[in-house]
Structure formats: structure tokens, C-alpha cells
Amino acid sequence: MNHVTIENQAIPYEERRSTRYRRITLSMFEDRLRVSAPKYVSAKQLQDVIVSKREWILKNWLIKQDKLKEPVEFVDGEHFLYKGNTLQLKVIKYPHKMPRVFREGQVLKVYLPQGLPEEDRNANIKAALLVWYKAQARKVLLDKLEMHAKKMKVVFHMVRLKEQKTIWGSCSSKGNLNLNWRIIMAPEAAMDYIIIHELSHLTHLNHSKEFWERVGEFMPDYKHWRKWFKDHGQELTF
């Protein structure tokens, strides 16, 4: 695997080329940088892009490394993202058998059974939070889908919530949509961008000029939110 060195940080990176790619894109993972490019792009062009994005690459690599060093402990006071805001975790013991999660203002309260063994504590908190987040995502994202579909005069079919590292949404030729539930952690406008993006694929199943014009018709500042996911997408996790 190749490496790019930025301020004494040796960052592994892999190249992916395909005729499906229309432009050069960078994606940061916990263990490497991925550079995706059309087949016709030269090695020099690829290196020029890497050099021009050195600041972004270093920033996001360090964020990934910090997250690896500081695992979530699921203790009182930790913060979790929700709709672009931070919620503070509060764990409470209560006399019931099943964990429950409630949001009260900026506090995310997790109720745990009093007799739960300590070694099972973190796993139960995480599981309860996942259930809560996915339930919120289904409600919020479906409401947004219906609202934007009505404005855009398009019809979608089946909707599935998935969890993927770098894909926030997708649309099939049959009009079926996949949405990454983790976008519920992003600001409202960022969620709107992903939904408008995927609904625009119901008219243009590609990333042509016409496709982006349609996205821009319903979200004039889409470029800002497109970049936002590139810069902050890795933060949408726990």
C-alpha cells in the first residue's frame, strides 16, 4: 500500500479506478485513505489532488486516530450527536427488566435494570442507544422523504435504513431507496441534502449536469452540504 507523509504523519492510501467514477474523490477510513478516480486520470493528476488536499487529509486522519485512542465508555457526561446538536448521556437505574431511552432537552437518558450485571452494562447501553437512534431516524427521515417527494413530484417505493461507513444513501432503478441511519446525527439541512440527492436520482439515475441542476433547484446550497459530509461524515458515529 502507498503512503503519503504530511507533517511527519505517514498515512496509508489505496487507489481505486473505475469507468464508473466521474471525478476524483477522497474517503478517509480508520486505517487508510482511499483515492477513487476515473481510469483516464493520470498518476500526476492524482498526486496533484492529494497535495492540494493535504490539510483535509491530515485533519481527518488525526480525527480517525483520536477516535481509536478514545473509545466510548458510555458513562454520564459523554456526548452524542443528534440532528447536529450534542446530547449529554445520563444513565439511570430503574426497577424494570428492559433498558429504555428518552430524550429530555439536551439530555439523553438511558434507563437500565437495577439488577443488570456490571459486565453487561456497556453492551446494554449501546444496544439501547442504537434502537433509539434507528427509531428516530426512521421517523424523521421518512417524514422528510414524503415532504421532499411531494415538492419534487416524484414517487419512491421501498425505503430501507442501513449502516455503511461512507455511503449515505442510494437509489435503485426500481425507485427503491437506501438511507444510512447515521445521518440522523447530522444537521437538519445535511439530512435534507442526502434526501434531495437520492430523490433526484428518480429523475436522473446518474451524476450528470442535469442531475446536479435538479438537486440545486430544490437545494441551492447543496455544494456546502456535499462538502460538509466530506469534512464531517466521519464524526457521525459512536
TrEMBL record:
Sorted UniProt keywords: Hydrolase
Q: Which InterPro entries match?
A: UTP_pyrophosphatase-like (IPR053136), YgjP-like_metallopeptidase (IPR002725)
Domain named YgjP-like metallopeptidase: residues? 22-232
- The reply on keyword Hydrolase is yes
Query: Which superkingdom?
Result: Bacteria
Q: Does the keyword Hydrolase apply?
A: yes
Q: Name one GO molecular function term.
A: hydrolase activity
User: Which Pfam families does the UniProt record give?
Assistant: YgjP-like (PF01863)
Q: What is this protein called?
A: Putative metal-dependent hydrolase
Species: Desulfosporosinus orientis (strain ATCC 19365 / DSM 765 / NCIMB 8382 / VKM B-1628 / Singapore I) (Desulfotomaculum orientis)
